[in-house]
Task: structure prediction
Amino acid sequence: AVDICGDPAVDWAAVGYQNGQVVVWDIGTQAVVKALPDIHKAPVVHVRFLNEYSQLITGDVTGEVHQTTFSYRVMYYASDTVKILGGANGAIFAIAPLYKGNAEHPADGFGLMAVSSPKATFLLALRPTMKVVFKVPIPEGVDASKTMPYLTWRPAYSSPSRTEGRTGLRVRDPVLAIAWGRTVQLVQAIKPMSKAGGLGATPTLEFVHLGAQYNADTAITGMLWLGHQTLVFITDKEELRVLDPFAMTELENLDVRSMELVFHTKYSSGGGAAKLCSYHHSFRTGVDCCYLLGMKRLYCSTIMSWQERVDILTLEGRWIDALALCLEFYQGNGKAVVGLPQEGGRIRQVTADKMQEILIGHVQAEVTDSSSAAVSIDYCVAMGRCSTVLYDVLYPVFSEAGHATVFLELLEPFILNDRLQYLNPAIMGAFVEHYRAKGMLRVVEQCIVHLDILSLDFHSVVKLCKEQSLTSALVYVYTKALNDYETPFRDLLAMMADAEGDGRRRIAYKLLLFARYSLEGKAFPSGAELDVGIRAWVQAQMAFLLFADGGAEARDGRLLQLAAVDMEATAIEVTHFAPESAREVFVPEAKPKWMTAPNVPADVPSHQAVAGILLELLVDQSGQPCFAAVAENGGWPVPPRQQGQVLEFLAKYFARGLVELADAALHRVLGHLTLTDEEEGAERRELLLLAVVKACPEERYDEERVLLLAEGQSFVRVLEVLYRRRKQFEKAIKAYATARRQRHLVFAFVRRELDNPYILPQDKDIVKTAVLDYLGELVDVDSEEASKLVIEYLLQEHKAVLNKLRPHPRLQYAYLRTLMLPTPAIDELMERSGIAITTDMRETYIKLLCQFEPRKVCPYLVQNTDYRLDYCLSVCQHYEVVDATAYLLERTGDVSGALSLTLGALQEQLAVLRRLAAARSVPPSFDTDLAKAERDVGVVLHMVIELCQRNSQRLVDKENEFLWFQLLDTLVVPLRKMKAKLNRRGGFDRASREAAAATPVGRVTVPLTNFLREVLQSMMGFVPLRSIMEKIVRDHSSAHFNDFKGIILTMLDTYNYERNILCTAKHLFEGDVYEATAKKTKLLSRSCKPRAGKCTICRLPFKPANDEVLPTKAAAVGVFNCGHSFHGLCLTSGPFQDECPACLGLLAEFQPATVEAIAPLPMPTEEKKRQRLARLNRFEATSGSRRDAYRLSLAPANLPAYEHRQAPAPPPPAAPEPTPGAPLVAGGGRGAPPARGAPPARGRGAPAARGVPARGGAGQAPAAGRGTPPQAPPKSPTGEEKKKKDKK
Result:
């Protein structure tokens, strides 16, 4: 038996046998239900029942797969077998149908079945008709000849799920696991999410890959699902492994080598190849166990339940491991779980009870150190049983063992990390007393603000906070529990009044921070945003407490009391009355939104009142001029910096229209904003001054003074506003052009003014004149923007711009660079404005390039040609731009002059290397100097090489060699000298050579050698290798071979490389020629067979009914390679004869022959017979060339039976290459039988039909017609014919 598959619905088993027979057994009665002897002709290796026990899938080693359906008749079972796979794709290695799970799924209606061939795994839908619905290719790197695939389905099932607070059942999609080689892949069948289609729409499925594939360390030889979350597989090392495929982790590994698992080798190819072992039928899984079939017995491996796994760890004393495993089950992260209930809440209850049992046993058995307490707290917090287990059960155990203090200290990190938010009164009391005794009540304060306030004793905590000055905890308790912000504020004021020294300062800071957070709508001390519903009320209450509670005297006392502790902090906090972060609350209106909130006190101060309070209490206004900066006053408690903060606060609210300022206060604000010399905050002060100037009427301040002070501070935006009021646009542009900051804003200002339709033309002319006057400064700010301005608005002043910038070469260069190398925007403006780049502009730009960026001169000259060569050459020579001068000399035809110039520059750079090599020791900066010199030499050398390469094609060989050899000598001579010097210093041993290489001359030799190698490699494509070798031998014959060893070896390597390339190309060419010739020969030797015995055009037969004689023209027949055949008369009636008209679809362009034209002739007399036969022979002799030209064979369709004379066949012409659809000899179809009495044809293919010569090789006798003797061999061609044939 090859395979046994029992269906769970009935006690049947299907068995496949070696001889191809399939037998279905009744296991209970041990009787044969049905025998299927004629389904397969090869050994059966796959037998699988489908969902219904009446359907069976069987497969053999050849790849044939059959589906058999059983139906019960009276007293017996009938069967109906259908072949679903014919074996065309090769062997089928694995078959796995999808069975129904415990939940309904759309996949059940498709009859899904997975099969694996040597190339891929296919998912077949057997219903309603069989088709391939998904394909999974073989994994990369897997050899199908050495490994077997294994397939297993996890059917659909339902599991508990909690969504939006509701618990229900969720149907999990079926998953196919594919193991091939070392790789495991998962494919899930899901129902599409779209709702397309109405009632009666055809259901569909989608298949997706789940996650990344899993790669084992060895090949897999069997795999099955064990439960819904676990895969069990066997490796080629005979190891049973448990895998969580969704986490891609192995859980357990068991050696099963001793079981000697069975396998078969039916898929092995034989010969010397390795056996392909199949373990498909030696491994099965049940609900919670797996069965393994060995050579001697059947083994059963069972997965332990979760309780057994935990109990084993507990018995071994591994308490921590047992708790960790139990916590995984509690959190739903357990692997290969057996025995847990399905409902999520029930799972947590059962596992928490077990965890509690283990934890109590662990603490009672091992209370030795702090680790036990940490573990106890951690797991009690994780399972949420702190009150019932941690505090009531475990804490007394630790207290009796003397570890209570350790337990209490370990609670702190859990509280601060918000993992523990509840302490019962007893634990809280012990916790406070412990830290009180240690003098660390600040820890208690930090913990209180993290605890759930409802779990604390409010009065006890408040009393503790007041006694120990735990201010943060006090505010937290009041605001969190009672939503009371007034009581903690007053308590903190009272505590601050009673405290002294650092304690007083600390409480004041906490009070200020509490006030700031409240005004910003944040919770204290966490800083989290308050709910929108109470945010406005909290802000209003804090504003009332700060500025209105208790009258003016109490208010001033509070603020001064805070200021006495830290004036800077007080000023910062009170000016957060309306911070930028809360701008959406404080809108520009008479009262902010929070003043209209419910339960807001009626006497909450307005913005105007707050401004007056701050100005009166914090700003020094005695003995100081109004329009001045805030000065130092020893008698005033508020420092100038903090007074400035208050003034900026007032300026912001004044600009927004929330407060009104008297003239003295306004001048004080303007003086602070314009006379403060601090660079820090200048941008902020400028924006505030701009807002004040825009909001304030002109008559309320001295505009001249503000203008003067703004110029001193370089507040260009303020100056713009003031100058625009006076229409002094030129002064505004000057202010921008000479400013220290924000200079780039001048372009936006100019554009606004020139594009403003409400400005008079004379004012626009003033702006344009100012732009020209300060054009140099504008180009210095941004040359591109300045060029845009000129092109857009000053087109007619373009020449004036160039003349204006002439005294400033760098600015002129920046302007021209924008025009010569335009961006797309500049290019579009120039095209729209009609500005053209003239020759004078290009030459001016080239001159400026030579002055400021000489490296860019040569690339620009190469890209552009609109300039005078003589002028540019003189300019480049004047500024000593070597590469540009050489390029211009080359353009004038003076190649030798260009080479001499560049070689001179190369000599100068090589002189730097020679100076470095002449040093006696290596200085510290040697590496940097050498790298710089090497880089400079490389730049010049590449320039010389490019020069030689450009001119090598137009020079004769001698001139070309002279050009390159000059460059070669320039490098060889200094290199020889350096190597000679190096050889004198070094010895013959390795240490001496290494020491010599470390000297300056040795280190300089390395880049020179590389440069020489680069020159040789560059010149090999332009100078013959033989000339190079002769040059070396002729000019350097006295040198040591070692000096040129590297060069010669490089040349030889290049020669070998080129020779290998040529040889490879020659072999490839010969192979292609041979392949093409063989293909052509094969095509020429083929014969063709007509599809039918009648013409494709006229539909009339070629052969008359009674062997009558046809006219000569009507007897001609043409046959093409495609098999279509035609009368000669029909074929010649169309526009062409060398292609098949039927294949081209052009039959309508051909005229069918008339019936009379191809009708049989009356019976001729003997004389007429001989004349007709003579005409026929002449026709055959003269139609050869035409037959060759059209590749069409014309021959008589039949000859009378009484004719015994055969016309001699002409010499066979050279066969042209056939094309698809080209005609061949009629009747020469492949496989046609020879005529009776005719000898077999010796050529390749079938003999010709009656009366038609067969196409054979040279000297081959054609087959004779019926009743005719064989022809004599053709005559040997004459010399003239041979010449014609050869010429053809």
Summary: Residues 400 and 1075 are 97 Å apart (CA to CA). Residues 1041-1084 form the longest helix (44 residues). The first strand starts at residue 3 and ends at 7.
